[in-house]
Amino acid sequence: MSRRAAFHLSLTVVGCALVSAASAHTTIKESTPANGAALTASPAVIDITFEHAAQLTSVIVVSPGHADRKLGFEPIGSSLEFKLPTPNLTAGRNELHWKGLSSDGHVIEGTLVYTIEPAAATKKP
Fold it and tell me: Which domains does the chain have, with CATH numbers?
């Protein structure tokens, strides 16, 4: 095999490995309420949908002036969709730092942000 052919073969193998690794990872496809939403009250539940099956391992609420809180979620195990019941978000900015495992076992993580503006419900035009 010529050097040129070996070089092209090497590039093909590396390219395939990168595509394979990238396709195995996942992230959040959507959430309800939507990421970045400004709400007048804490939602009763937050729904998270991943692009591909994943295992959610932790969700921590970070909010200025309050202690960080770990949220429970359903289901436990691998799924496309997870529910965070009773998140009890407080007035102001709330960041939900989530971590999980993609189907290939790689750690995935991200943040959802919700702002609770209770005064918005009582403002008059």
Answer: 26-121 (2.60.40.1220)
